[in-house]
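Please check this today:
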Amino acid sequence: MGAALDAYDRERWRDAAKLLTPLLEDLFLVLDVRVIAGRVDYKLQRWRAAAEHLEFARAGDPTDMTNMPVLIDCYRALRQYDLVDQLWEEMKVVSPHPMMMAEGRVATAMSYADRGDLQSAIRIMTHGGEPSHVQPHHVLEWYVLADLHDRAGDPVTAKRLFAKVAKANPEFYDVTARLAALGDE
């Protein structure tokens, strides 16, 4: 298990999967094994297998929201939008750590974008006021919201939000390129 976790931490997903194979045969009912297997399958874009492992873990501890954003994103990738919406509602009730909420919000909003409903995606990403102290989850949310506004044909709002991202973290994803594409020099 330690070697599998080490491979996972080093982003060697295929190595981690190989190391997990015998563990899954012998320890299939151990939550920690199923969680790491779910995370590895997610990284390898094996959405159905990842969802099965993470659902097993969720059944073992329904109050643990740690893997909920990943599970939501699995169902988004599988186009099981009713499950995306159901899990998002569960997550909102529990209201876990802000970064976890942000990741769940992003996965849910992107499911609406996938469905062609950019306005609902924007509504999901639009919440709260200006933070007094910018945290990483704020930057993530601004970036996704900017992207959604750009896709929806609102370059002015997109540019304003990408500028907020760049001010907070100029190396966040491709924010510099996104601003340049919108006419910022």
User: Anything to note?
Assistant: The chain has a mean pLDDT of 95. The two ends are 49 Å apart (CA to CA).
